[in-house]
Design goal:
4 helices, about 25% strand, Chitinase A, domain 3, EC 5.2.1.8, six-stranded antiparallel sheet, peptidyl-prolyl cis-trans isomerase activity, isomerase, about 170 residues
Length: about 170
């Protein structure tokens, strides 16, 4: 085969891929992450308490999740019993409400026994993972709140480290 034919055959798949790509002016990865631009930023190493920045803007009306670290262990399902570390922040104040990291003790509970935001936002998460959950009031504590820093109609920000699934 001649050199020009070889080069043409090598360039054909590249030109086809380029022709099939779209440039609607928005990078799909940027578009996907734009909804998180006003959300709190989560930093910190796996196995340590996360650092969470205060959110900006209006809270979302629906449950939002973002994997900070993707785990590699067993996957949580709706009937799982979970062992987790978590940190909770109130959207309206940007204040940390509580964190299991502060006591050094993990929390263990059936997923079916917690707020709907967890029941909908945790399945699919794997042991060793860290996930940001932004939970609107209707999937959290609603109009009654939970007392203290979690007032009525509060949007909740949880950072959850999934330690064990059983």
């Amino acid at each position: 085969m001649k050199t020009k034919q070889k080069i043409a055959l090598l360039l054909l798949p590249i030109s086809l891929l380029t022709a099939c790509s779209t440039d609607g002016g928005v990078d799909p990865m940027v578009q996907q992450n734009q909804s998180f631009s006003d959300f709190p930023e989560v930093a910190g190493l796996s196995g340590s308490k996360p650092e969470i920045s205060a959110p900006k803007g209006t809270p979302p009306a629906k449950l939002e999740t973002q994997d900070i670290f993707v785990g590699s262990g067993a996957e949580a399902i709706t009937t799982s019993v979970l062992e987790v570390h978590y940190t909770l922040m109130a959207w309206s104040s940007g204040q940390l409400v509580e964190s299991s990291w502060d006591s050094g003790q993990t929390a263990t509970f059936p997923l079916s026994g917690v707020i709907l935001g967890w029941q909908q936002g945790i399945p699919g998460m794997k042991e060793g993972g860290r996930r940001l959950l932004v939970i609107p009031p209707d999937l959290g504590y609603g109009a009654q709140g939970a007392g203290g820093a979690i007032g009525p109609n509060e949007t909740l920000i949880f950072v959850v480290d999934l330690i064990k699934v059983s």
